[in-house]
Amino acid sequence: MSDLLNSRLSLLSANLPLLKQCLHGIERECLRVTDQGRLAQTPHPEALGSALTNEQITTDYSESLLEFITPALADPAAVLENLEEVHRFVQSKLGDEYLWSPSMPCALPAEEDIPIAYYGSSNIGQLKYVYRKGLALRYGRTMQCIAGIHYNFSLPEALWPLLREAEAPGSECDRDFQSSAYIALIRNFRRYSWLLMYLFGASPALDAGFLRGRPHQLEHLDADTLYLPYATSLRMSDLGYQSNAQAGLTPCYNDLASYTDSLRKAVGTPYPPYVEVGTHKDGEWVQLNTNILQIENEYYSNIRPKRVTYTGERPIQALIARGVQYVEVRCLDINPFLPVGIDLPQARFLDAFLLLCALDDSPQLGNGECGQCTSNFLSVVKEGRRPGLELQRNGQPIELKVWASELLGRIAPLAALLDQAHGGDEHAKALTAQQAKVDDASLTPSAQVLARMTEHDESFVKFSLRQSELHAETFREQPLSPERQQAFETLARESLAKQAELEQTEVGDFDLFVGAYQASILAISN
What we know:
About 45% of the residues lie in helices and about 10% in strands. The protein is α+β, with helices and mostly antiparallel strands. The strands form four sheets. Strands 1, 2, 3, 4, 5, 11 and 12 form a seven-stranded antiparallel sheet that branches. It has a three-stranded antiparallel sheet with strand order 6-8-7, with no helix packed on it. A two-stranded antiparallel ribbon has the order 9-10. Its EC number is 6.3.2.2. This is Glutamate--cysteine ligase.
């Protein structure tokens, strides 16, 4: 164990109650599908409220791609309970539609028939819509139907001054120390996130129609299903987002300033193929601008530094002005065997894993190591369960199982500390469950998915629909209490009223609104 980690563990041991102040939040994306396992072509159900203004139930890329958002809470059990309540409420309003159980999409209609999410006539609603039209233009609509789970995590605000006082008194201010520490967490996450793909990857197969006839290296499991025998997460492989425009955009997270700077430049730098298309076609907006990124959120990464934004503020402005507040882990697949796609043991493990990333030594990432992180990650998503698979560590080969067991060993003291703070042994148990998957690859979700499909002689779509039906039944059998049902109904009604009010009181022209929005990012200088 490094000296730094040792001293930080001692400091935390002396301030144990702090560990109960970590905050957690979950965003779960999820397609609405028909009882035939096809994409629902219906509009976002009005009973769920306004996708623009309902803080818990919205849409992501497509009108058919729901997104559920929990509040940030100190207790992950309460976060999951909230997520489950949202699922139950939504299922109660879906009629004969289902919530799709895995990350990879159902059988999709023709590209142009995948509906883009619509947010009404307000300027901000139109901005969201045009941004999505731009995504369709740049990456195609099919890619945008992939769903995932985002796990938001922050360490207690009160911890940073204590750490700074112990390690760097009189150096940078608390805010800069905190931002540096979160960027260091992200560097370690880049080093070790392959482990999460092995343990929780759950997309080893997909519907053959997803590739739209593009060339690929996948194998046929059956006539309708493509897969790779040792894959953990095809969602996170190079089958997912391929962007030539973003290829040169690899912020290596050595400090917050260089990260925000690279994003700011990308939002302000024209990309010739997009310039050729322009922003308008037949008088209609088709993309917000012709730059590498339309907005900073278009940059696809496995983890993001984040800060809660004020009304009208852009994510990058918030980071530059007030520093990093939490991280958003974006590489998690939805587990099709779990009703809400994630469970408490996984959340407990993620907390211990992220604590290790935050508290351990995290040297700067040189170009060589940056490339090594990327290739390790891609090896594991495509063939993580291959017996004897080797990764690269410090330029030397190391067997995945050996490195994984070592990492779990290093996480153990963090899990023990969390258990001390919370009482019980839930974090230690979660860790033991992960070690079992390292010892026996057949216990991983990706292996379980393939085993279940083979056992039932099912295509990917049939397996996924069966799981979706099982989960719907679970939600229906345990309806919300009348009070909670009422609370969600009220939230939905109020969000519709809020959108209507926004549209009625809107002042100013959309073109000017977009112009001001673009200018806001160009005006920032570090």
